[in-house]
Amino acid sequence: MHRLFFYVFFLLISASLIPKANAQKRYTIDGTVKDAATGETLIGASVRLKELQQNGAATNAYGFFSLTAPEGDYTLMISYIGYETLSQPIKLNKNSQLTVLLVNNNTLKEISISSNSHKNDNVDNPQMGVNRLDLSQANNVPVIFGEKDILKTIQLLPGVKSTGDGNTGFYVRGGGADQNLILLDEATVYNASHLFGFFSTFNSDAIKDVSLYKGGMPAQYGGRLSSVLDIKMLDGNDKNFAVQGGIGLISSRIKVEGPIVKNKSSFMISARRTYADLFLKLSPDSATRGASLYFYDLNAKFHYRLDDKNTVYLSGYFGKDVLGLKDNFETNWGNQTATLRLNHIFNNKLFLNTSFIYSDYNFVVQSFSSNNDFKVTSKIRDFNLKEDFEYFLSDKNTLHFGINGTHHAISPGDISSSNNSDVNPQTIQTRNGLESTVYISDDWKVGSKLNFLYGVRVALFSLLGPGKFNTYDANDMLTSSANYNSGEVVQTYINAEPRFSVSYKLNDQNSIKASYNRNTQNIHLVSNSTASSPTDLYVMSSNNIKPGISDQVALGFFKNSVNNQYEFSTEVYYKRLQNQIDYKNGAQLIANQDVESQLVYGRGRAYGLELFFKKRYGKLNGWIGYTLSKTENQFDAVNRGNYFAATQDRTHDLSVVGIYKLNNRWTLSSTFVYGTGNAVTYPHGKYNIGGLTTLYYSERNADRLPAYSRLDLGVTFEGKPHKRFHSSWTFGLYNAYNRKNPYTITFQDNPDDPTRTQAVKTSLFGRIPSVTYNFTY
Question: With pLDDT > 90 as the criterion, what percentage of the chain qualifies?
Fold first, then answer.
């Protein structure tokens, strides 16, 4: 594996160092681009020399850039959406380092919803299937209960489908909800939902940048088959102290940030809590008064600039949900993450990010019944160390390479109980695994029109002892059993994951792109629910479970028009999935020592067409996204081995978002969504045994729920401007025309005629108003 890494690395460097005839002296400008008011680094800012139209760069995920050009006199242009463009003459006769401060243009009368800081980036960039989410855009999109929610907003993009009402889970290009890698400051978040999916774990006040990769995934990302959602927290204001918050009908939030040492270090702390449980205490019913129903989350980040070449960051997330009924039961679950990171600049061309990452997800289910008391605990815990290098080899080549090692520990669910309980205690073995990866990629600008992004990621996964490990045959019969000591290797898988993207500019406003990427996945979710649940069961690749593999190809056309005010794109994709996991009918997943005997394995395929039209700025802006797609699975033990529609298969999916700046104080917004109903299995008959009706089911997922549609409305009213204080009111109406979208449909005997069967539809939400007061000081 390491030989392959260095061989590819040598080839890339050799290709880029071919000597050029009559080469001029070349010098490099490097530095960091920051917000002048807060000191926050700006991700994706455009840096270019005006006189060299094709010579440009963009700041990386940490605000760093490096630009090399021939000796000469130039005009340096640095721009970022929502900021005043910096233009200054520069004499390039030596290497130089800059710290650039851009001024936020608060005088803009229009809203910009561009997903890229560089206005033509969607045409120029070779990457496909990537969306950068502007958080000011997300703040104007109406969502349920009036809570700003980035996960709800990305579900409005083409190729991304919601798992249903009240859920923050999502499907990307036919992949399952567990096939999305969700990162918060580089730490994996395994369950990104609060209150069973009504809210996401991400408090928008604490977020700086959100990037979603649906295809053409860069080589530094891996571990999931379908997408990467990369979320980065704010570093904190190192200039001045500031307070921001909001008070809503169901929750409140507050953020405090400021300098520790001015212009050198800062902190940011953001907290949010619901208070439905406080209203329950007003109930006349004693059981209701003792009920628990709330969540809280806390984001914190600190950074310190040691010198011009070294900056250290420490960030963390802590969240918990509690749901319970006094003297009956309680369920609580939560995520904890921590990231310690060092940015080091070796020189004007080589940048290193070193990260040590901790991630923990756990849940507890407890019953207090006198004869049936028990407690179930489960957790998944990761320790991750990674080194990511970025080498600005020349003005044509930027190399990304690095290594990553993650130790996984999964405790599926231990049961404890008292001596008087009817429930027997049980301990399920903790499984350990080591995931190691090495990657390299090259962003190569061949000329003014052609651009390549190519590389390879090599993933090695080892299942480790201690524990007892069973092996099952194709009929799920136990064939062997072996015990392993701590650290002993039970099974190892090695997979190479090539990545390739290319773009060709037809002209300054139009381009075509193509991509291919392979991904593998070794942490799998086994669940009998489409909704996110705290009791979701995670398993590792093992001697029975092979790594999931996906191969995706895509082709797209991208166009900007009217001075980049309008953006249009169309992409077609085909994805092939191997080693997919499902469960047998009637499988027992929780507290099962032999859960691998309950699983079946198969394959899947997904293909579709995505259309996206966006108006980037103006008094009226927004976007329209449409997806036409098909997603199918195939398991030998299901539907006689024929392909069948996956649960997430939806033929049509449409989203329309509109934002209108009425004047300086009033902003109107609306969202309309429509989608084909999910694939479901309805009974095709019934029979009576001993007076009990038994339903008969035939083909899996051969039927459909009714189509889903919804209209949401929002209004934001800005308070009168003050020098230090700003406030606003946000009003929302979720499901404005009160559509009763089906959440579930069940079947039962008609009470008036038991020979007939009636369908009973359950809907979660009708029309829901909301109001939130926001403030900044």
Answer: 38
* Residue 396 to residues 9, 489, 715, Cα–Cα distance (Å): 16, 43, 46
Q: What is the C-alpha to C-alpha distance for residues 643 and 633, in angstroms, rounded to an integer?
A: 5
Question: Comparing 141-155, 329-343, 553-567, 634-648, which segment has the lowest mean pLDDT?
Answer: 141-155
| Domain boundaries for CATH 2.60.40.10 within the chain | 25-102
Q: Quickly count helices (H) and strands (E) in the chain.
A: 6, 51
Residue limits of CATH 2.170.130.10 in the chain: 119-230
Say what the pLDDT of residue 244 is.
Answer: 92
Peptide bond into 742 cis (omega under 30): no
Average model confidence (pLDDT) for the chain?
84
Contact in structure between 671 and 142 (CB atoms under 8 Å)? yes
| Nearest to 402, CA basis, from 142, 221, 585 | 221
CATH of 231-776 given 2.40.170.20, 3.30.470.20, 3.60.15.10, 3.40.50.300? 2.40.170.20
- CATH 3.20.20.30 for domain 25-102, yes or no, is no
Reported as a single tens digit per residue, the pLDDT across 739-756 is: 888 877 777 777 777 777
Structural fold of domain 119-230: Ferric Hydroxamate Uptake Protein; Chain A, domain 1 (2.170.130)
Is residue 597 a contact partner of residue 478, using CB atoms and an 8 Å limit? yes
For residue 453, the model assigns a pLDDT of: 92
Candidates 397, 453, 448; CA nearest to 54 is: 448
112 within 8 A of 139, measured Cβ to Cβ: no
pTM of the model: 0.89
Instruction: Cite the beta strand spans of 368-447 per DSSP E.
Output: 374-391, 397-416, 431-445
